[in-house]
Structures
1.
Amino acid sequence: MSTAGLTRRQVLAAAAARPSTRPNFLFILADDHAGYVLGADGNRQAPTPNLDRLASEGTRFVAHFCNSPVCTPSRQSFFTGQMPHSAGVTRLPTPLAEGKPTLARQMKRAGYQTAVFGKMHFNRPAVPGLHGFDTLLTEAELTPAWKKAVNPRPVPPGIRTKPEWHPFRDPARIWLNADKLPYPNFDADMRSRYLLSQATSYLEAHRSQPFALWVSFQEPHSPYDFPIEDRDRFAPARFAVPRVGPEDAGQIPLIFRELSEAHKQGIIASYYTSVGYLDRNVGSLLQSLRHLGLERDTLVVYMADHGYCLGHHGRFEKHCGYDPALRVPLLLRWPGRIPHRTVTGMTEHIDVPPTILDLLSLDPLPVTHGQNLLGATPRQFIFSEYLENEEAYVRTDRWKFIFCSGRRRRDDGYVTDNPTPGRYVRLFDLHNDPGEFSNVAARHGPVVDSLSTKMLDRFRTTHPEAAREPQRLSRFEALEWYVRPRDV
C-alpha cells in the first residue's frame, strides 16, 4: 500500500485501539546509514534482511530526510523536536544544553524507565538523569566497559586487520578502509555485541514495567567496522563507483583527490559489509524483544542520523546537501497499531518526535517544529542545514535549492580548492537531473526566488534570534545572517 498519509478514519481507529497501559518504546539508531543502502529501498546489493523484515511489518517512509547532514546537530535536533539552530547545536563538538526539553524527559515524566546504550553525541559525561535518562552507557563510557569486560580471542596469523582509526592524519584510503579490513575481533568480541548484551539485559530486567530504550549503533560509520568472520563477504569489484559530474571538480574535498577507482570500490564494499553487520545486530535485538514477549507491546523506531555519500560527486562523507547525504531510512512498527504500508510523501527528522509522543499518548514537547507523520498533510518541501559551512537546503519533489554564504573557512576537514568562494546558490532539476549534476539557477530565477523565500521563512519561524534580524537586508543577506553558527 503506497500513500502519502493516513486518512482521518485510520488515525481515529488507531487511537481507539491503543492499550490502556503504556506500551514500551525502542528507538534503534544507526550512524551514517544512507537510505539507498537498504533492500526494502530496491537495492539488491544491500545486505539488510532484518531491516527489510521490519519494514514489511510496519510503515516505511521512503522520502525521509535529516535536518542536518552531520551527527551531533542531527541527533540533538530529533531528540528535542527542534531545528538544529533552535536546539542550539549546529556543529559537531557542541553539547546539548542540559535544560533542553527532550523525548527522554517527556517519557520519564509519564512514568517510563528510560535508558540509552550506545553512541549519542551528547559530548558530556554520562551521569544518571542527563537529558532525562535514568540509565546511560554512551560512547565515552561504553568503550572502556567493553574492553574491561571482553577478553578477545587472538587473531590467527595471516589475517590482516585494520589499524587504529586516524581520520585526516592518515591518507583517506586507510581511514576509509579501502582494503576492506575487518576490525581485529571475532563477532562475539565486538563492541556492538557487548552493546547488545547490555541492551538485552536491560530488556530482561524491565520487561514488567514500561520502558523507553535507545540503542544506538556506531555502524556503518567509517572506518566501517565489521568482525573477522565478515571479511570476505563482498568483493569490491561488484560495486560500480558513482560518476563524477562536469561541475563537481572544484567542490570535491582535497582529502579524496588521491583515491583510485580500486580504492573507491574497496571503500564501498567496506561500507556495505558494515551495513550487513549492523543489520545482523538489529536482527538480534529484535529477536530478544520477541523472545521476551515484548514485541506486540513495543513501538519500535529504526532510523539513521543522516545519510552518506559513497563516491557521489567524488565524496565519501555527509557534510553536504546532496540527496545521498540527506535521505535516510525510517521504519516504524507497532503490531496491531501501525499499518503495513509505505509512505511516499516527504518527511523530516523533526516529524519523528511528535509522532512518537502522539502514538504513546504523551504530552507534546513544549517546542515542536515537526508534525505527526501519521495523518498530517504531506510536506511540500523539506529543509536541512549544515552551518559548519554556512549552508542550507530546500528540497521539493521537483527542485533542490542550495544556499551557501561561502564566507566560513570550515573546520570539518573537508576543505576544497577554494575554501571561501563567496556567496553561491545552486538549483537542481530533480526530474531531469536526479543525480544533481547541473546547476540551473541562472535559468530559473522565479524558482530560486520561491525556494529561497521558503528557506528564509523556515529560519524566521524557528530561529531563537529571529527578533534580532537586522532591518533592510535583502533576502540573500538575511539568509547569510541566519546560516552563521551560534553554538555556545
2.
Amino acid sequence: MLKLLAVLFLVADLSAAQSPFDGTWLNKGVAQPPLGTASYSLTDETLRCSCAIGNVEINPDGYDHKVPDTAYWDTLNAQAVDAHALVLIAKKSGRTIFTEIDSVSSDATTLTQMVKDTTEAATVTIETQSHRVDARPTGANTISGVWKAFKASRSLNGSLIKYTCTKDSFSAESPLGERYTANFDGNFYPVEDDPGHTTVSAKRIDARTVELTSMRNGKVVSVSRLSAATDGNTIHAVFENKEANSKREFDFEKQK
C-alpha cells in the first residue's frame, strides 16, 4: 500500500504549454524488490516478525490482535495453514486493508508472498519472492528465518498513473481513484480517497525538475525529485522514504 501511494507524489508540470508530463505513465519502480531483509519466527503460540508490516508479535490464532497503529492498519490476524503457509490479514477500524498469503517452497529456501491490497475499490495484487539468507531454525515452521527479496511484480492497476499539469498546478490520478491537485505555492494538499490522509506539497526546482514532499499526521514521510527527459517518453524519479530511511531511483515510461 505504502508503495502505491508513493507513485502519486512523483509528477510535475513546468511549462506554460502542454507539459511533457501529461499523459498516462507506467511506474517501473514497482517491479523493484523491497530493500533490506525480513525476518519471521513462528511457533504455535507466537508470530514475531520484522518486515513490511513493522515489528510485530502476536498469537497466530486466526483472531484480530491490536498492533501499533499506523496510517493503514491497527489490527493483524495471523494463522498458519500448515508447515509451509501463513495467512496475514491487516485491518484499519475493522476494514480489511490487505490479505497476504506466505508460501514456503518444499525445500524451505524460497518464500512467495501474494498480497491482495483492498484499500481501494479495485483490488491490487502484489507478488514478492525471496531467498532464505540464514539457516532454518531447527524444528520451527518453515517461514521462520531471514529472507531477502529478489523479485517483485504488481498488477497493472497498481502500476499506472495519469498526470495533468499546468503552469500553476499539477494533478495526479490513479486507476483506483486516488487523486490530488496541488498548486506550486508550498502548501500541502490532500490526496483524495486515501485512507492514510496523506497530503502533498510541490516545489519547482527548474524547468524539468520538481521536488514533492508528502506528509501524514504532521510528519514528512517522503521526498521525491522528478526529472523529465527531453524526449517526453521517460521520467527519472529519486524517491526518499523518510520513515524507512531509504532511497530508490527508477523510471516512469509513457504509455499514451
3.
Amino acid sequence: METRQLGSLWPVSALTLGGGGLGQVWGETTREEAIATIHMAVDRGITLLDLAPLYGRGEAEAVAGAAFDGVWPAHVRVTSKCMIGSRHLPGIAARLETSLLRSLETLRRDHVDLFFLHSNIHPDDYVYEGDPLVATYGAVSWSIFVETIIPTFENLKARGLIGDWGITGTGLPRAIMDALRGEPKPAVVQAIANLMDSAGGLRRFEEPAEPRNIIRTARNNDVGVMGIRAVQAGALTSALDRPLPSDDPEMRDHAKAAPYRALARDLGEDPALLAHRYALAIEGVDTLVLGVKNRRELAGVIDAEAKGPLDKEIIARIESLGLRRQIPRIPLDGEAL
C-alpha cells in the first residue's frame, strides 16, 4: 500500500481504518467480524486506526483493544476523539482528560498517537440558526478553543498521554482555517474528502462548506489531512445500507448522486470503490479514513487503492457532473463585504 507523509508527523498508509464501521454506525456487523477486519487491515498494510468512544458507545475502541489484547504492533498508530459543548462548562479540561483516560483503558494502551477535538469551532458571537442546540452539545467558541482546549491538549501531550492533537474540520470553515493558521496549531485536521464536497448530516452551519479550502489551508501550514466521508455516509454507494427518512441529508445526497452512479455503471465500476479512488486523488489528502464494517468491504477498497491513481480523464468526467456546485459565499448579484 502507498505510504504518504501525514503533515509534519510521520509516514502513514494511504488508507486508515475508521471506527464508524467497527462500532456499527454504518450498519450491522459482529464483534468477531470487526476484530477480523482490524487484523486484515494491519496485515494488508494499514498503519493507522481512527477511533472514538462515540463510535458505538465505546464498541469501536473495545474491538481494537480486544484485537491486540494490549500488545499493539509497533508500527500501528491510533487516534481517539472527544466532543465538547457549552453544557460541559465549566470542566472542559477534566472532560477531555477523563474521555482520553477511558479510551486508553479500553484500548489497553498508555497513549494515543492523536487526540481530536470532535466539536465545531465557531466565533464567540456565532449563532447556529438551523440548530441552536449544536452549541450546547457539539461546538465550542473560539475563546474556549484558544484559552482552554489548546492548553489542555498541550498538557496531555507534555505528559505523554497523546503524541499530538488535531481537530475535526467539519465546522464553520473560516474558524477551522483560522485554527490551522494558529499557533500552537493542530498537527492534523480531519476534512471532508468526497466528490460532492458534502458533509451531509455533519454540517450544522448555514454557510457554504469549503472542504477544498480547508485542505489547501492545512497543506499550506504543514498540517496533516485525514480525508473523511469518501462515500458521504453511503450516499455515493449503490444503495444505502440502513433505513433513513426521505428528508435525511444522506438520502438527499444519494438522490443527487444518481448521475454519478450512472457514470459508474458506464465505466463498469462499483460507485463506492470509484468514490474512494477519487478521494485518494484529492490534492492534499494524506490518508483516507474508511468506514468499512467487514472484511469484504475492506478488501474491496484496499484492492481499489492498489490500482493506483485514478485516471485524470475519469476525474474530469466526474467533475463535469457538477455535483460539487454550491451556493456562493457572496451572492452573484451582491456586493463583496
